[in-house]
Write a structure and sequence with these properties.
Blueprint: E1 3-4, E2 55-56, E3 59-60, E4 75-76, E5 85-88, E6 100-108, E7 114-118, E8 124-125, E9 128-130, H1 137-149, E10 151-165, E11 175-187, E12 198-202, H2 207-210, H3 217-236
Parallel strand pairs: 6-11
Antiparallel strand pairs: 1-10, 2-3, 4-5, 5-10, 6-9, 7-8, 7-12, 10-11
Length: about 240
Amino acid sequence: MTRVLRPMAKLDSPPRPKRSDAAEINGTGERPPGKAPRLAPGTMLVVTHTSSDIPIGGAPMPVPGGPVDAAVAPQPVLEVARPAWFTLMAPGWMPPAGQVTQALGICVTADGRVVMVTWDDEHWTFPGGSVEPGETVEQALVREVAEEACVRVVACEYLACQHVADPLNPGEVASYYQTRWWTRVSVQPWRPRHEMTGRRLVAPDLVLATLFWQEKAIAGRLLDLALAADRRYRAAS
């Protein structure tokens, strides 16, 4: 269900410092400075089906705790130097709030373009970030896209989440979820509060080519869901 949002007082409060959580896989395709480099071709362990019966370095590969999206296959995480796996869950299925670490928005403007951001003027991704203590996932979404992309959320719809199986996570959290949302946004003056250095408004048919993520099957599925949500919103407006 699409939710139309009023401006939130929370956004007017002083911005908090970004939470550093190097152990959690970013989930946006980013590899900021200091993160472990990508594995060389052939060194990533390939798991055909994620299963708790398959040991990875002495640890079981966690399995998702809900229905998965049959439209797209699980994919290995290529941005970290340890075996890990992304699985897109069924659209609309929401995990328990305590297992959600991130909210990311596919932000669409009134003229139908998608907001993308960069931290180095070279690698482009969608805005989003960690859920902070004391806030809901939706509040994290609104705050993060404001901080990273300087956009105001007018309406939003939950799309799906991806399960992260990360058995060798040095932070000891081997299984968690990252939520993905469609948002209709109003573009504000470019005054980024944290690490992002640029913003771009991209035509939908160029989003996947612009996106930095190495594996794009899940991104393509999420983009399709987001554009469908945007069409519904336009039809109802």
